[in-house]
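>> Question from a student workshop board

For tomorrow's exercise we were told to take the sequence and the ligand below, predict the bound structure, and bring the output to class. My setup keeps failing. Could a helper post the expected result so I can at least see what it should look like? The ligand is glutathione.
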Amino acid sequence: MIALYHSPQSRSASIVWLLEELEVPYQTKAVDFRRSDGSGSRDAANPHPHGKVPALTDGGETIFEGSAIALYLTDKYRTKKLGPAVGDPKRGEYLSWLAYRPGVLEPAILSRRFQIKHVYGAMGWAPADEVEEVLNKHLAPRQYFLGDEFSALDILLGGGLHFLMMAKMIKETPVLKAYSARISDRPAYRTMMEKDKR
Ligand SMILES: N[C@@H](CCC(=O)N[C@@H](CS)C(=O)NCC(=O)O)C(=O)O
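>> Workshop helper replied:
Here is what the output should look like for this input. Compare the format with yours to find the bug.
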C-alpha cells in the first residue's frame, strides 16, 4: 500500500489532498522534520534524503519532492484523470507548471520574504513581483491551471498559492482570491484540512 511520510500543516498536506481526490488507499506515517523556529528534527524513518516531507513509498518505489510525487500518482492512477497522460496536448503544460512550483514560485516568494536580492542570469527563478504577474495573467481567463478541468496542478501549485496568500506572502488580487476560493471548495480539500487539525 502507498505510505505517505507526512507532517500535518506542512507541504505534505498537498499529497494528502491529492490522494483524497484520487480515492486510492494509503496510509500516513507521521514524521517530524526540522522547522524554521529551530524545533523538530530529522526523522530516521523518513526515506527523503534530506528528511523533508513529503516522501512516499509504493511497493518497492520511493518518491520524494511534491511535484514528482504528484506526477507519479496522476500517471499511475488514471481513473480520476487529474493529470494529462503522455500524448495529451496538455501534457507539456502540465509538466511545466508542476516544475514551476518548486523551481520558480517557492524560491521567488521565499527570496522576497527573506530579502534576498534577485540576480538575473544567476538565479534560476524570477523576481516575486514578476511571478505574481505571470500567475495572475495565466489564471485571469481560466477556471483552473489547465483551463476548465481541475488537475493536480491546482493542488500542488494552486494549493501553494492558496496557503502563501493566507500567510500574506503573496498579494491577494481578485483573480487569485476567486481561484483560491474555487480550489478550496472541494470535499477532498476539506478532508485534508480535517485530518490535519491539531
Ligand atoms: N522541495 C520540496 C520541499 C519540501 C520541504 O521543504 N518540506 C518542509 C516541510 S513544509 C520540510 O520538510 N522541511 C524540513 C527541512 O528543510 O529539513 C517539495 O516540494 O516537496
